[in-house]
């Protein structure tokens, strides 16, 4: 009789034995026991069904645990860019260009970490186009950026703060993108291992319509020598290159920075919010750590180099003086401000994005046009801050609306929480 009850199809026997093993190992309470499991069950088939139901419950529990585990999955910069490409926020070519920039930042981060060991600190003994002493890593980082961008085959024009003029990349001149960058911001901090950074902005090379039309160009003279014609062609090419670079910040397709500090942080915007990625040294990948960063509407931190106080405009002095007044001496509701100054624009902006406040680098008697470069520093940073809900201004005009007149043009900048920048503009009006 008992043998007859066991005469069930082989497929059911296989399933029966499988569920028995699964149940025994995954849920000891439901495992078969000679003294209790078979109580009240009349046939092996019923036993199999009971065990199958128990196994199903275990599988559901495993899926639930798996869902909880997935909440801790990491997302790399590469996978994030591919997802942005899939939803149409950028194309495949721009993905490659941004990835090449992130690779350059990883290399620079590695160089900075071993700068003291590798004897890469100190001055290079050269002066850049800005009239500033170049640190050794200024020169090396510039080469790293240029090489990574050239390797993409998609970058047509490269403009660096360390170069006299923009570079038209011959082998990839048909590339669609113009990339502007400051390879190492705050290079004076290198020798003391303090915060430094890299800043970049990406434009469409065909976006700018400020160039000279071909019909308006001077015709070639019939008696011109081959050398003269070649020089003229080179001059025209250089002019087109400069025109492609001198775009207002509102034309930016993407912008970002990499901060080299206790962590290596890569902050990026594609025009749809600001995202932060932190370099995981174990994997060698930038991992998404903050989504849609929003700058506080106001803040109590101001960051100005007050050693230049006596060189500033009286209106700006009045603004700074009022920030220092004790709340006890002001109308109720006034807040106390704290002063912070890192000496690195990347570090200043990163803190301001997270905590709010205002950063200022104004013009003064010695630097009447300001100190920071519009193309390489002010425009990319203003783009990022605006994407986070903040504001960037020269005190009278939105930074992103300023059309560069030259590639190394300097401008004053006040950037940060919208309410704080608006407050300063009232003082300067």
Automatic annotation (TrEMBL):
Cofactor: Mg(2+)
Pfam families listed in its UniProt record: FBPase, FBPase_C
Domain Fructose-1-6-bisphosphatase class I N-terminal: 77-291
SUPFAM superfamilies per UniProt: Carbohydrate phosphatase (SSF56655)
GO molecular function: fructose 1,6-bisphosphate 1-phosphatase activity; metal ion binding
Keyword ATP-binding: no
Taxonomic superkingdom: Eukaryota
Domain Fructose-1-6-bisphosphatase class 1 C-terminal: 295-428
Compositionally biased residues, Polar residues: 222-231
Example of a GO biological process term: fructose 6-phosphate metabolic process
Region of interest: Disordered: 211-235
Family indicated by similarity: Belongs to the FBPase class 1 family.
Presence of keyword Heme: no
Chemical reaction(s) catalysed: beta-D-fructose 1,6-bisphosphate + H2O = beta-D-fructose 6-phosphate + phosphate
Protein name as catalogued: fructose-bisphosphatase
Organism encoding this protein: Aquilegia coerulea (Rocky mountain columbine)
Keywords from the UniProt entry: Carbohydrate metabolism, Hydrolase, Magnesium, Metal-binding
Gene Ontology, cellular component aspect: cytosol
EC assignment: 3.1.3.11
């Amino acid at each position: 009789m008992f043998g007859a009850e066991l005469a069930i199809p082989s497929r059911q026997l296989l399933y029966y034995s499988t569920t028995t093993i699964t149940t025994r190992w995954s849920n000891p309470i439901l495992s078969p026991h000679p003294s209790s499991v078979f109580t009240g069950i009349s046939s092996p088939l019923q036993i199999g069904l009971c065990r199958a139901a128990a196994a199903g419950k275990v599988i559901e529990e495993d899926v639930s645990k798996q869902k909880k585990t997935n909440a801790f999955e990491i997302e790399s910069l590469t996978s994030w860019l591919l997802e942005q490409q899939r939803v149409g926020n950028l194309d495949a070519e721009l993905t490659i260009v941004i990835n090449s920039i992130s690779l350059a930042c990883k290399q620079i981060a590695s160089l900075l970490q071993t700068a003291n060991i590798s004897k890469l600190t100190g001055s290079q003994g050269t002066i850049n186009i800005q009239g500033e002493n170049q640190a050794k890593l200024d020169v090396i980082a510039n080469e790293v950026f240029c090489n990574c961008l050239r390797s993409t085959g998609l970058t047509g024009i490269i403009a660096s703060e360390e170069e006299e003029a923009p570079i038209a990349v011959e082998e990839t001149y048909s590339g669609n993108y113009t990339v502007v960058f400051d390879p190492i911001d705050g290079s004076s901090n290198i020798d003391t291992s303090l915060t430094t950074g890299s800043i970049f902005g990406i434009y469409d090379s065909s976006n700018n319509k400020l160039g000279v039309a071909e019909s308006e160009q001077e015709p070639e003279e019939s008696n011109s020598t081959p050398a003269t014609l070649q020089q003229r062609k080179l001059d025209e090419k250089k002019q087109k290159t400069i025109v492609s670079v001198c775009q207002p910040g509102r034309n930016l397709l993407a912008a970002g920075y990499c901060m080299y500090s206790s962590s290596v942080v890569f902050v990026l915007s594609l025009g749809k919010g600001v995202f932060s990625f932190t370099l995981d040294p174990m994997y060698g990948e930038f991992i998404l750590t903050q989504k849609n960063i929003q700058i506080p509407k106001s803040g109590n931190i101001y960051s100005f180099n007050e050693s230049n106080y006596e060189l500033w405009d009286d209106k700006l002095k009045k603004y700074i003086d009022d920030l220092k007044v004790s709340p006890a001496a002001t109308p109720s509701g006034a807040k106390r401000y704290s002063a912070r100054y890192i000496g690195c624009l990347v570090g200043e902006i990163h803190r301001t994005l997270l905590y709010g406040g205002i950063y200022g680098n104004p013009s003064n008697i010695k630097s009447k046009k300001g100190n920071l470069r519009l193309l390489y520093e002010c425009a990319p940073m203003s783009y990022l801050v605006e994407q986070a809900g903040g504001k960037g201004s020269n005190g009278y005009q939105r930074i992103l609306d300023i059309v560069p007149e030259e590639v190394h043009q300097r401008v004053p900048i006040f950037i940060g929480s919208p309410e704080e920048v608006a407050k300063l503009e009232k003082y300067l009006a």
